[in-house]
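User: Structure please.
Assistant: Input sequence and predicted structure:
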Amino acid sequence: MCIPSGEWVIIFRHKVFTSYFKSMQFRILLCFLVLGLLPMVAVEQGFLMNYTKRAVSVRSTEVQNQCKILSNQLISSSYMRERSSELVDGELTQLSNLYDGRILIIDQDFRIIKDTYGLEENKIMVAEEVVKCFKGENTSHLVGNRFLEMTVPIQENDSKTIVGVILISASTDSIRDNREYLEHNANMILVALAVILLSLSVLCSYLLVRPIRNMGNYLQEFAVGHDDQDMEISSYAETVKVSRTFNRIISQMRVLDESRQEFVSNVSHELKTPLASMKVLADSLVMQEGAPLELYQEFMGDIAKEIERENKIITDLLSLVKMDKKAADLNIEPVSINDLLELILKRLRPIANRKNIEVVLESFRPVIAEIDEVKLTLAFTNLVENAIKYNHENGWVHVSLDADHKFFYVKVMDSGIGIPEESKQHIFERFYRVDKSHSNTIDGTGLGLAITRSAILLHKGAIKVSSVLEEGTTFSVRIPLNFVG
């Protein structure tokens, strides 16, 4: 099925827009716009509301003052009794025209004695506002945002008796027009500020996200192998921290990769060496026709030793693989560490006797701990066996056991050849041998200490080494008494 090129363009644009809307840059831009526009809109509306409230208040005061003057004229001209005065009628008409409104004069009987519109005269008006005004309470309120309706009492100067009420409705169209004018100008200013804010937001969001984008570009280049330099993005404290952490991880990965390559190389070397020896021995037998039986027996014995050596390497590799598994594979049970060490030394004393090496166990107290007996037996066996293997004739190996309320401690000390200072940090690496030539003078696969360390770490323990050349080595092991998975 072939998709037209136009549809490809639409799909591509859709993906681009979707990706942008999900980006950090868009969200920062949106935050800037929201945080910038909302206060401006709030300020605009607050300003317009305050203007309207203030304008209505000023208009109310102005109308009230005019009505008080009118009230005095009504009293002085006895308009409430005679109900006719050209001067007062003129004042009423002028005032109603001034405020584009309507004025009603109401007497004590709630009768309208004057209506500037001439529609309600001689009618009774018992409105709530009028009643309140006769009780001495002035009223003022907006009617539909179009008129300001007010009541002002007509009081006699001497007795302060309320003899009537002026009910006036003043138009607020001029206030509304001024508000609309101000609102239009405010909206124009708001649009201009919004454009400026949008421009600044786009610029700021781009600048803020640029270090992250640079970091992403670096990671893409690094992923395809085009950039092997350290990441150095120092724009923010956070990017500096991320860069340092990333560089540290990459450094560890490089070390791990080199270690893995070295491990593969060492495995290949260690496995090929016995095979090469067996092949040389077998070829020698094949080439020697009629070789004596003694020679056959000697060569077959050598081949058997190489097979045993190959088998030991494979066994140690399998043990190491098992150690690399999760702690969930451990078979944890309470074990007497005293008995465990006694059994290990009992098995290894025959080997020590060949070099006349004294092997001693010193236990300070009975120790019961939750361990995987098989794995820790292998670990302690490797330590004691190495202490015997790398020792001098007539030397000694001392094993001590102690404990406190939380850990038990095992030390394996010997009077052997010691470990060079530069080799101490490498002795727990797989296939590492202090003897770089891999000489067969001292038998071993180079996996023993790696297996030991893995077993101890599985038990949440720790191992340390101290050594002096030609004086001896001490391995110190600390393991919790109670296993914590």
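The two ends are 56 Å apart (CA to CA).
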